[in-house]
């Protein structure tokens, strides 16, 4: 088939992936390509400011006429958060863009208590996706307002009403939820950042639930279930027989787990089985010291639900380590054969260390593990042995070390990405990872501590990761430390020089005053390696900031000579340091104290991209995009 014979829709979709200059060139290739590639140029419109909206609304402007002529080609409209849209302007947009498929209205764009009274949502009957942030929306009952809007959107497949803040939760009743589905028969994806209301007459609730009409197309549901949990689970089991994703259940210790034996039995007796297609569940636990919430997991397990993804957030004060161990044993281990992604997020201040890996069973399918648990301890070699398919490991506010077990020849592991935020590890652990995980290409250590012993004859910390070829390496605000000796042995010493070394480097400098290389014991460090001079500002024992400077070749030469003299014993007194008082690549305190300089050499197979910039805020989205490429 010739390129000119490709169908219109295929050419149009190809154009969506091109940049504007390429789209313009494609329009000139031939007559067949002109219209589909012109359409692709109009596929997405970003409404970025009030001025642009005013020109669209003013019939006397060329902008109004321009969009009125070509707006039928637009399929997706994104309204940015820095503009304010009232109902009259929504009506203008409906007239400009009659064939819209996707509408995204960002934070606090909508306004006015009469929203929905002027605009005619039947004009957007072609919409298949509606994503609206209702955080700043002034309306007494948002659920009722959007019920009226939904009457004109029979083809809608994805509906997302989000609230990122707000003092009062928006409540949705069973009748309102039923009306949503009656108006939107094609719905497959539903996110309502609302709280389902408690059932008023609990005795009749089950009878009402049994008679609901199933919404067989819905596969993704997000509701903030807070009250009458088991009754709402009964409703979900009947209403959504093909449900695959359920977010968010809030499990409270209010005794309701013991109050509804009839509902528990009802869920267990359904045929076909309840939630037979459920793969992903998000749960929040609050103030639940009696562990009654574990009953939910047992119920899912006995229903033979093959969960693949679990996100469990624990928001409560922690006094008993048994609570944490029960989460691993009664939740995670129950689904060890099928679970692929497990995110365990704890927001509490538990000061005692606890071992996450002690009760961990064998997980043959787990590929993504995220642990945010204060003072948790992870034995990395044990974790890799039990999670043989793990690709991504992310730990926050935790320690990950090696166990005391010794392995003669540990099996190779396929770990691809390691992320440590506010965590603690050792140089030996990183070397073990390099030797065992030969496909480890991405590592991010932010505000973390990497400790290691220096060699007997110098203040060097060596980390040999020669087996590792980094595509992306981030060491933002992380500290390499070695134990201090003597009176202030309670404080670790920071390494002020970080050398990123790659074996491809081969250049060395020679010292004209000596017959040997000026590097001596530093012969594996070369001018082609990247040297950083790092200073630290300590706030507390657990808080600090760092400032790195990339060193010039001249600075490197001076520092290498300084280190050589230091390790030979020629510069360890304060008087011997006077000549370096004006040298900016040494810490000020070093010139006035008898503390030796320390440095770390991180030797890698190769590094394609690295970052040591200070003040880095971890970007989850960036690393998730990398993970999606695996």
From TrEMBL:
Transmembrane segments: none
Domain F-box: 1-45
Gene3D superfamilies listed in its UniProt record: Ribonuclease Inhibitor (3.80.10.10)
SUPFAM superfamilies referenced in this protein's UniProt entry, alphabetically: F-box domain, RNI-like
InterPro entries, A to Z: F-box-like_dom_sf (IPR036047), F-box_dom (IPR001810), LRR_dom_sf (IPR032675)
PANTHER family, per database record: F-BOX AND LEUCINE-RICH REPEAT PROTEIN 6, F-BOX DOMAIN CONTAINING PROTEIN, EXPRESSED
Name the UniProt record assigns to this protein: F-box domain-containing protein
Source species: Phycomyces blakesleeanus
């Amino acid at each position: 088939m010739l390129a000119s014979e490709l169908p219109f829709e295929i050419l149009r979709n190809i154009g969506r992936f091109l940049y504007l200059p390429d789209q313009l060139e494609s329009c000139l290739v031939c007559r067949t390509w002109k219209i589909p590639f012109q359409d692709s140029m109009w596929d997405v419109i970003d409404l970025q400011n009030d001025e642009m909206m005013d020109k669209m609304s003013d019939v006397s402007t060329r902008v109004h006429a321009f969009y009125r002529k070509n707006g039928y080609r637009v399929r997706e409209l994104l309204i940015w958060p820095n503009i304010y849209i009232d109902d009259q302007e929504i009506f203008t947009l409906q007239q400009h863009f009659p064939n819209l498929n996707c509408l995204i209205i960002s934070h606090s764009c909508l306004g006015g208590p009469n929203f929905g009274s002027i605009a005619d949502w039947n004009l957007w009957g072609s919409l298949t996706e509606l994503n609206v942030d209702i955080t700043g929306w002034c309306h007494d009952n948002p659920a009722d307002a959007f019920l009226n809007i939904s009457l004109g959107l029979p083809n809608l497949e994805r509906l997302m009403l989000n609230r990122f803040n707000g003092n009062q939760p928006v409540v949705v009743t069973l009748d309102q939820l039923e009306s949503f589905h009656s108006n939107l028969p094609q719905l497959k994806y539903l996110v309502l950042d609302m709280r389902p209301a408690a059932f008023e007459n609990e005795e009749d609730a089950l009878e009402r639930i049994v008679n609901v009409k199933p919404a067989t197309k819905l596969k993704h549901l997000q509701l903030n279930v807070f009250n009458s949990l088991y009754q709402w689970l009964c409703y979900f089991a009947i209403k959504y027989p093909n449900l695959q994703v359920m977010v968010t259940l809030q499990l409270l210790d209010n005794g309701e787990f013991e109050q509804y034996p009839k509902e528990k039995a009802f869920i267990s007796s359904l045929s076909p089985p309840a939630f037979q297609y459920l793969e992903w569940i998000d749960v929040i636990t609050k103030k639940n010291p009696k562990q009654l919430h574990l009953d939910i997991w047992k119920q899912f397990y006995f229903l033979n639900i093959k969960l693949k993804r679990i996100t469990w957030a624990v928001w409560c004060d922690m006094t008993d380590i048994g609570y944490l161990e029960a989460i691993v044993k009664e939740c995670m281990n129950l689904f060890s054969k099928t679970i692929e992604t497990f995110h365990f997020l704890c927001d509490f201040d538990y000061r005692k260390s606890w071992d996450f890996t002690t009760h961990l069973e064998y997980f043959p399918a787990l590929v993504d593990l995220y642990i945010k648990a204060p003072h948790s301890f992870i034995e990395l070699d044990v974790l890799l042995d039990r999670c043989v398919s793990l690709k991504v490991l992310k730990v926050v506010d935790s320690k990950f070390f090696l166990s005391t077990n010794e392995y003669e020849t540990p099996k190779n592991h396929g770990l691809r990405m390691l992320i440590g935020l506010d965590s603690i590890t050792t140089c030996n652990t990183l070397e073990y990872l390099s030797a065992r995980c030969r496909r480890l290409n991405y590592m991010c250590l932010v505000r973390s501590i990497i400790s290691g012993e220096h060699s007997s004859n110098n203040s060097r910390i060596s980390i040999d990761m020669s087996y590792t070829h980094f595509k992306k390496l981030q060491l933002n605000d992380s500290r390499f430390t070695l134990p201090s000796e003597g009176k202030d042995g309670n404080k670790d010493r920071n390494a002020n020089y970080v050398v990123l070394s790659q074996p491809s480097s081969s250049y060395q400098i020679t010292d004209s005053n000596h017959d040997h290389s000026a590097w001596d014991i530093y012969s594996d460090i070369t001018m082609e390696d990247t040297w950083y001079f790092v200073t630290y500002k300590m706030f507390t024992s657990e808080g600090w900031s760092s400032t790195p400077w990339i060193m010039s070749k001249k600075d490197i030469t001076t520092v290498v000579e300084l280190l050589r003299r230091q390790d030979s014993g020629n510069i360890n007194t304060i008087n011997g340091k006077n000549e370096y008082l004006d040298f900016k690549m040494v810490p000020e305190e070093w010139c006035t104290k008898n503390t030796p300089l320390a440095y770390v050499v991180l030797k890698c197979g190769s590094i394609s991209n690295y970052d040591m910039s200070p003040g880095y805020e971890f970007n989850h989205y960036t690393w998730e995009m990398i993970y999606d490429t695996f």
